Amino acid sequence: MASHRSPQRAELAEFLRAMRARLRPEDVGLPGTDRRRTPGLRRQEVAQLAAVSIDWYIRLEQGRVGTPGAAVLDAVAQALRLSPSERTHLHLVARDETPVSRHLSAPVGDSLRVLLAGMPLIPAYVVDFRFDVLAHNAAATALFGADFGTAGETTGNTARVLFLAPRMRESQLDWVRVARETVGNLRANLARHPDDPRLREVITDLRDHSAEFAAWWEDHTVQRRAHGRKRVVDPVVGELAVCYDTLATRDDSDQCLIAVTPADPAAEDGFRRLMSGPGLHAIGAA
Questions:
Q1: What pLDDT does residue 70 have?
Q2: Architecture of 2-95 per CATH?
């Protein structure tokens, strides 16, 4: 446990400060007429809203309260108006509720590969919590490009493709929203797997090579991206409105199957043209 306690405490302090900074006093029912040197709530105001002492809250931000109780963390979460994903993140970094041993990747099962192959018109792929692509079907190749899911440093990881592949900016019409969702997912995953060297490698690389990722990482957004809708553009079939859904496969492996489906008849027609065309098109994966 000691191996990851110090990084978790640093994350706890930074997370709480970031959550305080984004709130205005009027957001939580407090007077907002006084001028403040720094934005956001003061520690004393958070302590008041959570019904804890200011001394205890200061020590919480400094990581000096041992393992705080779940109930008092819930009170802090309520005071800071945390979302469900952010509340979970607070418990993880404050109570060290993470696996003690390092995660060992499990291979994609044969039945899951059969399922992927049996969806000829639905692009689908399997990723782990690091966003490494573990398997994908032919429809994903047709939609995302021939290099999708290959062993390259960028092409084999959807977060790296999203931030570091130049073609992504052109093909993803909702790039900013999808990219911010990805940052929030990686932070949530890091709380669950703080000792995983591969995950930290991916995050460090993105912080070093993407100014947007580095800036969004610092705002401590936590988000569990599970489903949504976005617009992509293909050089042959044009703009497509698609839905994406993330489905857990095995709890013990942290693998997820992500399926991309057409959002309207026009996109469905575009999918059929892509899957039946003679070539493969390079439309970005996320």
A1: 84
A2: Orthogonal Bundle (1.10)
Residue 103 confidence class, pLDDT cut points 50, 70, 90? low
pTM value? 0.73
Query: Can you give the pLDDT at residue 252?
Result: 56
Q: How many Å apart are CA 59 and CA 66, to the nearest integer?
A: 9
Going by pLDDT thresholds of 50, 70 and 90, the confidence category of residue 134 is: very high
The residue among 231, 146, 225, 149 whose CA lies nearest residue 186 is 225
Q: Give me the residue spans of the domains in the chain.
A: 2-95, 110-276
HEC secondary structure over the chain: CHHHHHHHHHHHHHHHHHHHHCCCHHHHCCCCCCCCCCCCCCHHHHHHHHCCCHHHHHHHHCCCCCCCCHHHHHHHHHHCCCCHHHHHHHHHHHHCCCCCCCCCCCCCCHHHHHHHHCCCCCCEEEECCCCEEEEECHHHHHHHCCCCCCCCCCCCEHHHHHHHCHHHHHHECCHHHHHHHHHHHHHHHHHHCCCCHHHHHHHHHHHHHCHHHHHHHHCCCCCCCCEEEEEEEECCCEEEEEEEEEEEEECCCCEEEEEEEECCHHHHHHHHHHHHCCCCCCCCCC
CATH number for the 110-276 domain, one of 1.20.1050.10, 3.30.450.180, 3.30.470.20, 3.20.20.100?
3.30.450.180
pLDDT in tens, 198-242: 999 999 999 999 999 999 999 998 877 678 999 999 888 999 999
What average pLDDT does the structure give for the chain? 86
CA distance linking residue 136 with residue 113, whole number of Å? 8
